[in-house]
Amino acid sequence: MVARGKKRATRDPDGRVLSPPGYSAIPIKFSEKQRASHYLYAREHRVREGAKSSRPQKRTLFVLNVPPYCSEECLSRLLAPCGPVQSVELQEKPDLVESPKESKSKFFHPKPIPGFRVAYVVFQRPSGVAAALALRDPLLVSTESHPVLSGVHKWIHDYGDSVADPEALRVEVDTFMEAYDKKIAEEEAKAKEEEGVPDEEGWVKVTRRGRRPVLPRTEAASLRVLERERRKRARKELLNFYAWQHRETKMEHLAQLRKKFEEDKQRIELLRAQRKFRPY
Amino acid sequence: MGPAPAREHLRGASGEAEVLEPVLEGTVRKKNKMSSRKRPVAGSQAESLLQPVKLSREELYKEPTNEELNRLRETEILFHSSLLRLQVEELLKEIRLSEKKKDRIDVFLREVNQRIKKVPSTPETELIDQAWLPAGVQVPLHQVPYSVKGSFRFLPPTQVIVVGSYPLSTCTRPNINVDIALTMPKEILQDKDLLNQRYFRKRALYLAYLAHHLAQDPLFGSVRFSYTNGCHLKPSLLLRPHGKDEHLVTVRLHPCPPPDFFRPCRLLPTKNNVRSTWYQGQSHPGDGKPEPPTPHYNTWVLQDTALEYHMQLLSAVLGSAQGLKDGVTLLKVWLRQRELNTGLGGFNGFLISMLVAFLVSTRKIHTTMSGYQVLRSVLQFLATTDLTINGISLCLSTDPSLPTLADFHQAFPVVFLDSSGRLNLCADVTASTYHQVQHEARLSTVLLDSKADDGFQLLLMTRKPMVRSFDHILHVRPVSRLQAACHRLKLCPELQDNGGDYVSAVLGPLTALLEQGLGTRLQLLAHSRPPVPEWDISQDPPKHKDSGALTLGLLLQPEGLTSVLELGPEADQPKASDFRQFWGSRSELRRFQDGAIREAVVWQAASLYQKRLIPHQVVTHLLALHADIPETCVHYVGGFLDALIQGPKETSSTGEEALTMAVRCYDDLSRLLWGLEGLPLTVSAVQGAHPVLRYTEVFPPTPVRPAYSFHEHLRERALLLPRSDKPCPAYVEPMTVVCHLEGSGQWPQNAEAVRRVRAAFQLRLAELLTQQHGLQCCATATHTDVLKDGFVFRIRVAYQREPQILREVQSPEGMISLRDTPASLRLERDTKHLPLLTSALHGLQQQHPAFSGVARLAKRWVRAQLLGEGLTDECLDLVTAALFLHPEPFTPPSSPQVGFLRFLSLISTFDWKNNPLIVNLNNELTVEEQVEIRSGFLAARTRLPVMVLMTPQDRKSSVWTQDGPSAQILQQLVILAAEALPILEKQLMDPRGPGDIRTVFRPPLDIYDVLIRLSPRHIPRHRQAVDCPAASFCRGQLKEPRPSSLMPVLGYDPPQIYLTQLREAFGDLALFFYDQHGGEVIGVLWKPTSFQPQPFKASSTKGHMMVSQGEEVVMVPNVEAILEDFAVLGEGLVQAVEARSERWTV
């Protein structure tokens, strides 16, 4: 909770906007009209292990706190004055290890709704990073020359975009399934080849597809087998045959009653504490 | 800077554990205060949570002691479970009078006795000369007509004895009453005092004089008059001690005649003791007409003579048997919870004690029985014995001079004779009161037999106020109208008998009239028994018309409600004229399809809403016709809340018909799907999965008729798109239908591939539906939208094994095991649980036609309180279903109004923390299974959500409440419900009309930190708002139906899109609340935890800024910029962003 009256400053004594150590703050606003601005916190992207091709050392800028209305294209345009931008990547969280990007189908993986994100901006030249870090004037997301849609206009635009093209979808599905069928067919052919052929140590791999299929190796199947065994054993056992068994069942019954009684007592205690026994 | 309490709950301040505090009805205020103080200590919360019992092995298996075995055996024989036994013991402890208080009361009684004996006597005067009465005291009786013969003087009583429940020690806290009988000396009374209320006049004067003397005594805090059991001829004097003991006890003084003073044969029910000449104030015409008997008048005298005798009888029976006393005490609690014990003709503690005495005498109850067994036997007896037909008697003598039971049945509706054989103990009880008692007893016996876990709670601890027990309520106001009704119904003899009390005189005939008229629509008719008034001794006694209003409760029979026809006898039969006379002008001759010509009454009702209100038409018609009570005096409370679920501009229906139309269209579509040719795999099942298809959508869909000019066209796909220069088009929500395809070896066994195959099916489905049936379709990867008869359905193809595939995990050894993943759970919920639930609730609607109304009202209310987002549709539907499947101690509701009241009461009183709400759909769960669910719940409590709903299909995980509500939202809901219930009940029970019924539907807005005002132009459902706007925008719908071949704009609701964006961007910082039905404002609450300054962390900078605090540089939310973001993100929709709280530096 922000207590009032406590002195808080957003600028350091030199009049520069405060930023976390190692970062520099770049103000950003949606347009001229807004009075307050958000701050992008940027620093040069560094990784310990060798430079990856997609995010090269020296040339990559790591930006925190990118507001939801600022898209990849927009960020690229805003930073262009610092130097030509090669690529911009926006994501939910900063990732520690760079994961390989797979191209995702737009039909099956719709774009997530944007929140505040982090960006990796790759400049063509290292000088771009330095120039960006020195930015002091507020960046404007939407200007007269490059208006950015927001609100109702954006939603209407998005609605139009969301209407899928069935033909494109069909093509996508067909190509995927073709590749998938091919993969399966290859696997099958490979399995068939290996069928019954012993490996170097002489072991033969038994699969479900062989002449004598075996149980599938699943947890459910093994549980089923165990359960069957247990039932078989239980059938053979004699109950209430010996005197000690009688005694034990009686004792068990009593123990059940005691347990129930304890439970009930606890319940009553609780109700009493809540004054639930006042009828009116 | 103190936060409002409700706000604090919602926000969930730091350190609050995820548990709920129970909120009891009526104690909300107190609780509020408590919670606004500092957080309770963690320890106390842990205590209020039930935990599984852990007993050590030794404790469980030690040798039992004799005592323990005895107790266990006793429990088994005398109670049905140990829990019940403990509960009954606790209850008795709570309501029994403590020994300490008893001693204090005894001291007070001794004092009273002495003071009474010391009151000086007066000289004899004529009865009509009352000038001797000291000033400052009024005679507590209406002396109409005033003139009577006889004379009176005051002498101290010859005997003062304590009678009633106090000496029997069956009195219950609170409101301890001690009854004292004062025997008047013989010298005061004369032989003919029985006649013409002379005895009652003397009795009243006796009390008035006594009151004057006792009022001057400093011993008493208050001295007031009241009526004995509500009887207007028999006042009693109430004495309360002075000072801090004021609420300890009320002593009631009842003067009574000396024993054997009146000849019993003069007081038989066939005898007359109030002469018409005297009562009507005219000389008897002498036409030889016999005087009408005055059975009630006689009974009231007899009651006074038998006070001491009954006391002896009861103390002989109950005296030494603790079990019987406990039983009587429990029965008194039972009656009081059902509001049966008050007023004239109430089923009071004395009656129930006498009934126990009767059952002891017939050996149905034994003196060794436990209190619980006595309760059970009495309820059993009441449920099976109809005292209105077969009276019972305590009398053993075979004296031929005694009147027979049949004589009593002639004079009284309910007959239960005392051991003298002359006094009917149930003289004032009306037939409908007794039927109500029977009805309650029947419900209670069923409840006891069902071995329900919370039977005790429902039986003895749950209040059953009239407005919550009866489907419709009816006030007759002003009461003075009933006087005219008395004359119309020719009830003069009854008036004479009742001493001018026209309310009690007219009650019997009036209820009989309505019962006959409502016929098969009615299950039970009950009337209110106005509470017994109390007044100061210096005031005149209250008039009959001061008792407010006469309130009747109707419990309806859902089967009877569907017919609009009242079928009479055939025209040529003699009964036809009776029928015509009964219904008056409404009766007409009609020819029926089978050729019969019959008398019949047809009511005007087209929709279910109107049919539910036919009883209103019947009641007003009959009351005006037969009792001369005009429509303006009848205030019928039955359909006020229905206005909330009527669509915009709709007044004649509450939408059940529109829902049925949508369901019928869905049935057609599913038939088309079944018969579709050319699909590679056949359709194995088509299941609905949308609230419309289970009749619980608040506003049913209407067929869409889009105006093309209002939209952008997308010609090549036959689609309409919204236009930015027009207001937002009408909101059309597609109804989800799940379409299962048969299993086949051809399905791939890889999740990604299955999705592609499903997409292929969606495309194929759209193609075939267009080709074979000419329906407009639109396919995407996950669903196919189909436009049929103006309704839009969203068909989702499902493959049964897909959740299984999503669950498969391969261990390093190659073993495939199944583990739930979020994706598999979601898919299973959408394709398996949701259709099952939808079909179960669809079935419930067929059984209980009121289900739809109740569910929609409940949902409407929750959403209007801006909490709709926290509680899923399904969760609210299930809670409503519980009201119908487990109505105990009520019956399933037959009107939305009573169902909604019970919904509020369930939400606010249910102990969500310690109990799962088990909704036994289709009655699939046995008692043992329910016990199992409960114990499983206790063991897994910490892992389960705060609100747990269990169904036969979902016994462990509570699928529908997994994602919400959070503890804070539920707490807020509970508080709101607890506050709304009394307000609404008071409005409905107000005989002057309910006022503004929408009050409880308006949300409190002062708890929010920021309000975002939206522009109505872009709220498509603007007209659905609780307070319907006077003007709104055109939504591009044509008035005339026209076949549309273009797909309308689907699911485009700007406020909802805006909310998702807000939640995505600022969900960590704030909570957003909105009413989807036309809300014009979004409430924003900041989360206090996220406003604590934090050290910099790269992963959580969202919307924050750096500030320096002393030496450190810390992160705080950039509130100013965020407020501007609210406006930017909702450009066009947002009108204004109001930051209202001072608490956040802005």
TrEMBL record, chain A:
Keyword flag ATP-binding: no
UniProt entry tagged with the keyword Zinc: no
Domain Ribosomal RNA-processing protein 7 C-terminal residues, every copy: 163-280
The protein's name in its UniProt record: Ribosomal RNA-processing protein 7 homolog A
Region (Disordered): 1-22
Entries under Pfam families matching the protein: RRM_Rrp7 (PF17799), RRP7 (PF12923)
GO CC term, one of those recorded: CURI complex
Sorted UniProt keywords: Cell projection, Cytoplasm, Cytoskeleton, Nucleus, Phosphoprotein, RNA-binding
Example GO molecular function: RNA binding
Highest taxon listed in the record's lineage: Eukaryota
Organism: Octodon degus (Degu)
Species classification: Eukaryota, Metazoa, Chordata, Craniata, Vertebrata
From TrEMBL, chain B:
This protein's GO CC annotations: chromosome; CURI complex; small-subunit processome; UTP-C complex
Subcellular location(s) of the protein: Chromosome; Nucleus, Nucleolus
Main location: nucleus
Pfam families: Nrap (PF03813), Nrap_D2 (PF17403), Nrap_D3 (PF17404), Nrap_D4 (PF17405), Nrap_D5 (PF17406), Nrap_D6 (PF17407)
Domain Nrap protein: 178-317, 324-463, 468-627, 642-846, 848-1003, 1005-1136
Keywords: Chromosome, Nucleus, RNA-binding
Molecular function as annotated in GO: RNA binding
Any GO BP annotation: tRNA export from nucleus
Assembly and oligomerization: Part of the small subunit (SSU) processome, composed of more than 70 proteins and the RNA chaperone small nucleolar RNA (snoRNA) U3. Interacts with RRP7A; required for NOL6 localization to nucleolus.
Known function: Part of the small subunit (SSU) processome, first precursor of the small eukaryotic ribosomal subunit. During the assembly of the SSU processome in the nucleolus, many ribosome biogenesis factors, an RNA chaperone and ribosomal proteins associate with the nascent pre-rRNA and work in concert to generate RNA folding, modifications, rearrangements and cleavage as well as targeted degradation of pre-ribosomal RNA by the RNA exosome.
Family according to the record: Belongs to the NRAP family.
Protein known as: Nucleolar protein 6
Gene behind the chain: Nol6
